[in-house]
Design brief:
The complex is a heterodimer of chains A (241) and B (786).
Chain A lengths: L9 E14 L2 E14 L3 E6 L5 H8 L7 E6 L2 E2 L5 H11 E4 L11 H9 L8 H7 L15 H13 L5 E5 L7 H18 L2 E6 L10 E6 L2 E7 L12
Helix pairs in contact in A: 3-4, 3-5, 4-5, 5-6
Chain B lengths: L2 H12 L1 H38 L5 E9 L2 H7 L3 E7 L1 E7 L7 E7 L11 E5 L9 E5 H6 L7 E6 L2 E12 L19 E6 L1 H7 L5 E9 L5 H12 L6 E4 L4 H42 L1 H10 L3 H41 L11 H28 L2 H5 L11 H7 L5 H12 L1 H39 L4 E10 H5 L7 E7 L1 E7 L4 E8 L9 E2 L5 E2 L6 E4 H7 L6 E6 L5 E11 L7 E3 L1 H8 L4 E9 L4 H9 L4 E6 H56 L3 H38 L12 H27 L3 H5 L4
Parallel strand pairs in B: 4-9, 6-8, 15-21, 18-20
Antiparallel strand pairs in B: 1-10, 1-11, 2-10, 3-4, 3-7, 5-8, 6-9, 7-8, 12-22, 12-23, 13-22, 14-15, 14-19, 16-17, 18-21, 19-20
């Protein structure tokens, strides 16, 4: 089923954003004049090779970094000029992060890892429910070292969504996983997206994953080369790479 | 330069911020070692050379008066190689600028520099042969009273005033230090020695053809006790006080006690500091090796041998300790020169040159190398174990097995953040315990630094608020009937005069004889009391004597025992008396009895050698002036002056030592807490950054990290206070000497300050951690693997 998102409320408005890193004597341009509007409830996949600028864009969307020039707005919040404290509050209230390498806390069980984040929200999901959503109800009391990579990533997703964020930012969520496990993880992301109408921005270099998106943003050398609406989204379980 | 060496040096340079604490601790250890060890050597050598150059005698013989004819007999005593006869009398000096009279010993001038106990001339010269009214004045006294060669001093000898011209100022090994009689107070303004021609003295004291002090040099191969006994027998009939050895001389006893304590401190204090430094070095080297796993792999893959890589990391460890040691050497030298000048304020040597013997330089380098080996040892073992392929891979994720703390906390209801904090302690329990121990150690060092002040304060309160209440303590030239001393009450401004009797006695213990004083104390006294260390008053017994507890223990005497003592003033009569009680005093080792008991013992009417006076405050100056006019009074010790000089002399020195220890403690605490924080941050940066990305605020993440530090403080400070108290108690036992026993008193203020300083240091570290968390690179973490 394809849903048109054109009429939906814009969540992010990115206008002419550039990012230049000064590395020693060299200026490295990571983003060049990027503009895009991300609407509420969209699942966007940003595709690009290493060095294309996709991670930089994700970082700016997540409030981890600020653009050198240009503007970025989340709803009515101006992220471009936000202070460190304001950006923390923004992440706290609105963003769920899923990392390539999970970044779970080894000394906490799956349940505790998720529980840790519930303190950040006034209306969090039930921890057990969050873990059930990702299919880990049987493994809740296991420590990360006792879980497989896919299971760890699902705990990480449960951790990201338990505070009911507006946006789920996923940084190569399947990058460290094999095909079968990767598909399970993408399926969980898709379900979350559907169930909670969470906006998902997922970056990857794997073109196959793009088929599950509403829109695909292709990047190269810090620029957005194409933005494509996907007419027939493929369910994650049918993806192959 | 080889590439690996260049890498090592560059890494040391890069890590310098982190290594500052270790370098400073190594520097503190080596500076303390060099300073104290060299000072010890300097003191020993300076003392030996001073004793040798001025022919310091082995035996000191005191009699009331004996004829010069005895010289031949003394010389003929087996073991005796040299004898000098002289006159030695206690007199007073009138210094116009001084309200009270100064107390002095006047001695026969040695005839040449080859005489026993010759004088080291500091300024001017020895008086000419026939200049009978010329003297050599004790240099520290001259300096304190601004007296110079050519000035005159007024002596009060046998009731007569004698103006003498200062031909020179000098010092003697007999007077390395002069304390106010009956106190532990260094007061060069009011205590002097001076030397004048023997004949002039003999004429003044009606002792022509006689002497009352003999100095004896012995053949070192002879048994000193045997020679001493022969001499004692020979002089018994001349009102002998007996021959005494060097160790019974106050000046010698003080300096040798100092040297002994110095030797112990020179070993213990640097070892503690080195220990902490080695611990920190070890932790830092581990950190370095673990972050350089891939570098090690690459080097191994290139074909560098294990030995070359081990040597590389050893070079880094060595560079750290060598920089620290070199810095310590500079500080040690500067500090040593300061210390020497500080010693010169107390002990007057002709010169106290601070030199660092080659052996000390060498030893400090050996210690540095050993410290480097110990510090880097286990880290290097890790390098040896690493296979090139293993090292290429990142370390495998740590599996977590819940241990005791985690199991216990899982039963309690607490927030996940609190649980996480406790689990992290659990995970690094060994390291946390070490940090806790080091923090406790730093706390204990501050307790010790403050303890000296507490002990001195307490002693002052006990001594001057409870025991010595007299405004002035007088010493008479010779014993006078008690009623004459009481008559001092008639002086305008004197509200009360209490006479006292003091005689020198040899107390015969179970295995040794101890020379001390027996002083009268009246049960009705208002001006002086027998008081123990805790300030409890003890009445003098109706019969028998009371003895300082330390002395009774030393001599193996118990309350109820019959004590035998030789009364040295009255023809060496040996008497027996009951030990009626002991008193745990802080100062001195002496005996007390009522004046009636003492009169019975001496078989005489009650007499007094001195008196305690209560003086109305407005009349102080007037009374002092009156006392100056009385030749029978050869010493006046004012309570107010005593308190002031005590505070001036000891206060300043205690402050120096306390400041040094405080700096050291802060260095240890900062080094340990800061390094621990750095390492914790390095180990957990990914975890902390990922929390920040999830939306945790800086403060929340900081609390998680600082919670561990809080636990360290929560346990470390009380343990440190207890350890400090234990160490202070050990010091009281160690320092327990015949002259001074420090009371075991630790004030609330000390506990508060010690805790406060450590909390302050940890707040500074906390601030640094906060900054580090604020600067965490969140973006890099996205690509990191846990």
């Amino acid at each position: 089923m394809h849903i048109r998102h054109d009429n939906l409320e814009p969540l992010y408005i990115v206008e002419n954003v550039s990012k230049t890193y000064v590395m020693g004597d060299v200026d490295v341009v990571a983003l060049r004049d990027v503009s895009i509007t991300i609407r509420k409830g969209e699942l966007i996949v940003i595709l690009g090779a290493s060095g294309s600028g996709k991670s930089t864009l994700l970082n700016i969307l997540g409030g981890l970094d600020t653009p050198t020039t240009g503007q970025i707005r989340f709803r009515t919040t101006e992220l471009t000029t936000a202070t460190e404290r304001q950006r923390t509050e923004y992440r706290r209230a609105s963003i769920g992060y899923v990392f390539q390498f999970y970044n779970l806390i080894p000394s906490l069980t799956a349940r505790e890892n998720v529980q840790l984040v519930t303190d950040l929200s006034s209306t969090p999901l039930d921890v057990d429910e969050a873990l059930q959503l990702v299919g880990l109800q049987e493994r809740m009391d296991h420590f990360p070292s006792q879980l497989s990579g896919g299971e760890q990533q699902r705990v990480a997703i449960a951790r990201a969504i338990v505070k009911r964020p507006d946006v789920l930012l996923c940084d190569e969520p399947t990058g460290a996983l094999d095909l079968a496990t990767g598909i399970v993880v993408l399926d969980v992301i898709e379900q979350i997206h559907q169930r909670f109408d969470t906006t998902v921005v997922l970056i990857t270099h794997n073109a196959s994953i793009a088929k599950m998106a509403d829109r695909v943003v292709q990047m190269r050398s810090g620029e957005i080369t194409t933005v494509t609406d996907v007419q027939d989204r493929t369910p994650p379980k049918d993806l192959v790479w | 330069m080889r590439a690996l060496t260049r890498k090592a040096l560059r890494e040391v340079k890069l890590l310098r911020g982190q290594l500052v604490a270790i370098i400073l601790l190594i520097a503190a250890g080596s500076a303390t070692f060099i300073m104290m060890r060299s000072m010890h050597t300097s003191l020993v050598e300076s003392l030996a050379s001073y004793y040798q150059s001025q022919h310091y005698p082995d035996l000191f013989v005191d009699v009331k008066q004996a004829p010069n004819q005895l010289l031949a007999n003394l010389r003929a005593t087996p073991g005796v190689t040299d004898v000098r006869l002289r006159i030695r009398k206690r007199i007073s000096i009138d210094i116009p600028d001084l309200d009270e009279i100064a107390s002095a010993e006047v001695l026969s001038l040695p005839e040449s520099q080859h005489d026993l106990s010759s004088i080291y001339i500091v300024s001017g010269r020895m008086p000419d042969k026939d200049a009978h009214d010329h003297v050599v004045l004790y240099a520290p006294f001259a300096e304190a009273n601004d007296l110079h060669v050519g000035d005159s001093v007024t002596m009060l000898i046998n009731g007569k005033r004698l103006r003498a011209c200062i031909a020179g100022t000098g010092i003697s090994p007999e007077f390395l230090i002069i304390m106010s009689p009956g106190t532990l107070m260094l007061d060069n303004k009011r205590n002097a020695a001076l030397w004048m021609h023997h004949e002039a003295l003999a004429a003044r004291f009606d002792m022509t053809g006689g002497w009352n002090s003999a100095l004896v040099r012995l053949n070192p191969k002879f048994n000193i006790d045997q020679s001493r006994r022969s001499i004692d027998d020979m002089i018994a009939s001349y009102g002998s006080f007996g021959a005494s050895t060097r160790s019974e001389q106050m000046s010698h006893r003080f300096i040798t006690d100092e040297i002994r304590q110095n030797e112990v401190s020179a070993l213990i204090i640097p070892m503690i500091i080195y220990g902490v430094a080695v611990f920190l070095l070890n932790v830092s080297m581990h950190r370095l090796v673990s972050t350089q796993r891939s570098v090690i792999a690459i080097l191994r893959a290139f074909g560098y041998t294990r030995r070359a890589i081990v040597a590389h990391y050893l070079v880094i460890a060595l560079a750290i300790v060598v920089v620290g040691t070199l810095l310590g050497m500079v500080v040690g030298y500067v500090g040593g020169v300061q210390l020497a000048s500080w010693y010169m304020e107390f002990y007057r040597f002709p010169r106290l040159l601070f030199t660092i013997p080659p052996a000390v330089w060498g030893t400090s380098f050996v210690i540095a190398i050993v410290a480097a080996l110990m510090g880097a040892g286990s880290a290097i073992r890790t390098v040896l174990k690493l296979q090139p392929a293993d090292a290429m891979r990142p370390p495998s994720p740590k599996s977590f097995r819940p241990r005791l703390i985690t199991k216990l906390t899982s039963m309690l209801s607490m927030t996940v953040m609190s649980r996480l904090m406790l689990q992290n302690i659990d995970r690094r329990l060994g390291q946390t315990i070490l940090v806790l121990v080091m923090t406790a150690l730093a706390t204990s060092i501050i307790v010790i630094s403050r303890y000296m002040n507490d002990a001195m304060d307490h002693m002052m309160r006990v001594e001057y608020d409870r025991a010595r209440l007299a405004d002035a303590t007088l010493t008479f030239a010779s014993a006078i009937p008690e009623h004459e001393a009481v008559a001092l009450e008639r002086l305008r401004g004197v509200s009360r005069a209490e006479p006292y009797r003091l005689i020198v006695v040899d107390v015969l213990g179970r295995s040794e004889t101890y020379r001390t004083t027996l002083t009268s104390r009246s049960p009705q006294s208002h001006l002086t009391h027998i008081v123990d260390q805790m300030g409890q008053l003890q009445k003098p017994p109706r019969e028998g004597i009371v003895m300082t507890e330390h002395l009774s223990r030393r001599l193996g005497l118990r309350v109820g025992d019959t004590v035998r003592m030789v009364l040295l003033e009255s023809g060496r009569d040996t008497i027996s008396i009951t030990l009626a009680g002991t008193v745990d005093e802080a100062l001195g080792s002496q005996c007390y009895a009522t004046s009636e008991t003492m009169a019975d013992l001496c078989n005489e009417e009650p007499v007094a050698n001195g008196a305690f006076l209560a003086i109305a405050a407005p009349a102080q100056a007037y009374v002092q002036k009156q006392l100056k006019e009385r030749p029978a009074i050869i010493g006046v010790l004012l309570r107010e002056v005593a308190i002031r000089s005590f505070r001036d002399v000891y206060g300043a020195n205690v402050l120096v030592v306390a400041s040094y220890l405080l700096v050291l403690a802060c260095l240890v605490a900062t080094g340990v807490l800061y390094n621990n924080a750095r390492i914790m941050m390095a180990e957990r940066s990914v975890e902390l950054a990922s929390l920040r990305i999830q939306g945790f605020r800086i403060g929340e993440v900081a609390r998680l990290v600082l919670g561990e530090q809080g636990v360290v403080l929560l346990f470390g400070i009380p343990v440190g206070l207890a350890l400090g108290a234990l160490l202070c108690y050990t010091i009281t036992q160690q320092v327990e000497a015949d002259v001074l026993r420090l009371p075991f008193v630790i004030s609330h203020k000390t506990l508060m300050i010690s805790s406060g300083v450590i909390v302050g240091v940890s707040l500074a570290v906390a601030l640094r951690i906060y900054q580090m968390i604020r600067r965490l690179d969140l973006i890099t973490v996205l690509k990191e693997r846990v």
